[in-house]
Fold:
Amino acid sequence: MSDGLDQAQAAFHVSAIWDEEAGVFFSQSDIPGLHGEAETFEAFVTLVHALAPEMIADNTALGGKPVAIQIVARRDVVLSAA
Structure:
């Protein structure tokens, strides 16, 4: 069964990075023009779904073509060794 990723014309990467002070995930991405933040990872994914197609169409030559987007969450923590 195909999930559509094998038919994608290009692949993009989006990192959801947790900002402890602000209490939000913010984006780092290779999608031109994509900037956003959300309080939960699920809301972040929804935001990427809403914004990424337009940013890709407006800022690349891939408008109307299938693209794969990998979304990865990252949270850095500092712990004291026991």
Notes: The mean pLDDT is 91. The radius of gyration is 15 Å. The CA atoms of residues 10 and 67 lie 5 Å apart.
